[in-house]
Amino acid sequence: xxDRSTTRLDPRSPLVLDTGSLPRAPGSMRTVERVVAAPKDLxxxxxxxxxxAELGLDLRLESVSEGVLVTGSVTGTAEGECARCLRPISVxxxxxxxxxxxxxDSTTEATTEQDEVGRLRGDLIDLxxxxxxxxxxALPGSPLCRDDCPGLCPECGAHWDDLPADHxxxxxxxxxxxxxxxxxxxxx
Length: 188
Ligand SMILES: [Zn+2]
Ligand SMILES: [Zn+2]
Hints:
Elements: E1 16-18, E2 29-37, E3 42-44, E4 47-49, E5 54-64, E6 67-81, E7 88-102, H1 107-111, E8 118-119, E9 124-126, H2 128-138, H3 175-187
Parallel strand pairs: 7-8
Antiparallel strand pairs: 1-9, 2-5, 3-4, 4-6, 5-6, 6-7
The structure holds zinc ion (2 copies).
One zinc ion binds next to loops.
């Protein structure tokens, strides 16, 4: 059961669309093109679209018998860190979006859960969950600055790009550290 009173939408929210001007006859269409500020938490792990960054919406709203079908794309720039070398990276996103928003009291509303199929609240629809799902799915799980990023030397933390090809740490251990190590092992 869903308590609708707790899910009232704010029409001023950038990802809430008003479908009031869309005729309800199935097949009626309207396009929405706008640039909005990205909501917070639009990402995961090492990469995401920063809150307030520009998100482009290029959408088609279509009346269908059960509700309003939203189809189109979301564009934006995700910022993050390379998973191997931690250098800052940015990734251009162009993410397809398709989501049905069911009319109140439609069969679809009665037979689906709210997290499966969106709902119309009056004339308003909340695109935020659909946009978040689509963007997060499109983000690389392990973002790289370039496909062959060699990462960092595990010993000294320098980027392999900045190190000579024969860089290694196989020299003798500093005798002072070796003496300390001996001390700690005998104490145990
Ligand atoms: Zn890298
Ligand atoms: Zn090193």
